[in-house]
């Protein structure tokens, strides 16, 4: 049977741990991003709402309605 040196085993353990941690980070960040978008749906900054209503009334006046 082939024997691996201790440093090689430690290196493989560190690399696999970092790969697993990176995968966990990617999945967790996607889940948080999705949750943030879902919680923010339907709520807007008051400045954005005011700007949208201003633009809407400006375009309605320009059309003559």
From TrEMBL:
Keywords: Membrane, Transmembrane, Transmembrane helix. It holds the Pfam family COX14. One of its GO terms (cellular component) is membrane. The chain crosses the membrane at residues 12-32. It comes from the Eukaryota. It is a single-pass membrane protein. It is found in: Membrane. This is Uncharacterized protein.
């Amino acid at each position: 049977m082939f024997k691996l040196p201790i440093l090689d085993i430690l290196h493989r353990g560190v690399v696999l741990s970092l790969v697993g941690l990176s995968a966990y980070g990617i999945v967790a960040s996607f889940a948080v991003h999705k949750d943030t978008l879902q919680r923010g749906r339907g709520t807007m900054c008051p400045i954005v709402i005011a700007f949208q209503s201003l633009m809407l009334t400006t375009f309605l006046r320009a059309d003559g309605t």
